[in-house]
Amino acid sequence: MSQHLSSREVSQWMIGERTPQQEQHVRQCSECGAELARMEAALGLFRGSMRHWSSRQSRAEPPAVESILPVRRGPRIQPMRWALVAAALLVLAAVPIYRNVQDRQRQAEIARADALLLEQVDAEVSRAVPRPMEPLVKLVSWDFSATDGSDENRRDTTRNEEIR
Amino acid sequence: MATPGTMIAAVERSASEIDDLDTLVRLHWLRVFRFAMASLRDPDAAGSVAQDCFLRAYRSRGRFRGECSTQAWLMRIAVNLIRDHARNRRLQFWKRAPAYAVDLEAAGQWVPDGGASPESRAMAKEQLAAVWNAAGGLPERQRTVFLLRFVEDMDLLEIAAATGMKEGTVKVHLFRALQAVRERMGRSQ
Questions:
Q1: Which of A56, B117, B136, B146 is placed for a possible disulfide with B177 were both Cys, Cβ 3.0 to 4.6 Å?
Q2: Spatial CB neighbours of A78, under 8 Å, sequence gap ≥ 6
Q3: B98 touches chain A (CB under 8 A)
Q4: Would an 8 Å CB–CB cutoff place B134 in contact with chain A?
Q5: Which of B25, B37, B110 lies at the smallest CB-CB distance from A57?
Q6: How many whole angstroms separate alpha carbon A50 and alpha carbon B178?
């Protein structure tokens, strides 16, 4: 191989893909050797600077495991979770009870209203005279309770005798 | 060559290593953090990614079957987290000026003291800056493969395991990344 390494071949060399002919050429050709050395030096510098830069950072030190694992704080979180579950269950259980109480109250109110209505109907039915005639009844103060049939007959007889 | 006995021992060692989070963090934190730093170039984001990486690794340790090294497994988690983070950052419509910009610029010009001449130091700085800029502008997969190879010193098979790509795909991405870096270096000369 007499030709110099092309740019592609230099890149392939850096990956580790090289033929025996290329290796022989590089051993003999100072120009190709210098080009490969320049490339390797630049990549070596890059590695060194990157490592130097990251090692200078405060976070380069391994942290305490506790700061990585929030799971270790689990026992504190666990009761909280159980409390939430219990609260949810309580709410779920309280809803039907509350509804039941409300239903009962509503039924009691309906029953009370029904009873009142029935009382009103009874009162209307058992009235001696219709409601519009009630003022007239007050004007004529008949005392039905103090009279019976015989008294009325006696009063009629006396009245007839007087007429005669 | 690895015998079945040594392979089983390696798998058992990896599994016990993952069970012990303290050891896992102590042994691998710096590499994961460094890779995240190199990818995101943001110390805070890199710290968060590294932390999430170890948390996820620990939580999903039951799924680790020892098919790859612990290092490759952690890197695979980190690669996914970095990808998610970069996507989220792209979607942010507000951008805050990075507080570490000066630090980043200085890092891109870092050259170790080796008694070199001022000229060669200046040239080295130029080349380093070119690689930094080129690496920063690479597409996501090319950058990941490039950093795993040339910062973390991982071989192609390890990179394939860490990225979930085939070895041939890794080679293609690495080749393209190197071509881009070489082009940038050529321009800076």
A1: B146
A2: none
A3: no
A4: no
A5: B37
A6: 17
- Regions of chain A with pLDDT less than 50: 72-74, 146
Four-point Cα dihedral A106, A112, A113, A118, nearest 10:
150
Per residue in A10-21, pLDDT tens?
Answer: 999 999 999 999
The C-alpha atoms of residue B189 and residue B185 are separated, in whole angstroms, by 7
Residue with tokens 């041939």: B168
**Helices first, then strands: H and E counts in chain A:** 7, 0
Chain A: residue nearest B54 by CA?
A: A68
From the list B51, B63, B87, the residue with the least C-alpha distance to B14 is B63
Q: So what's the ipTM on this one?
A: 0.82
Identify residue B62 by its one-letter amino acid code.
G
Q: Using CA atoms, how far apart are residues B39 and B29, in angstroms rounded to an integer? A: 15
Neighbours of B109 (CB within 10 A): 14
Q: What's the CA gap between A17 and A9, in Å, rounded?
A: 8
Cα–Cα distance measured from residue A13 to residue A36, given in angstroms and rounded to the nearest whole number: 8
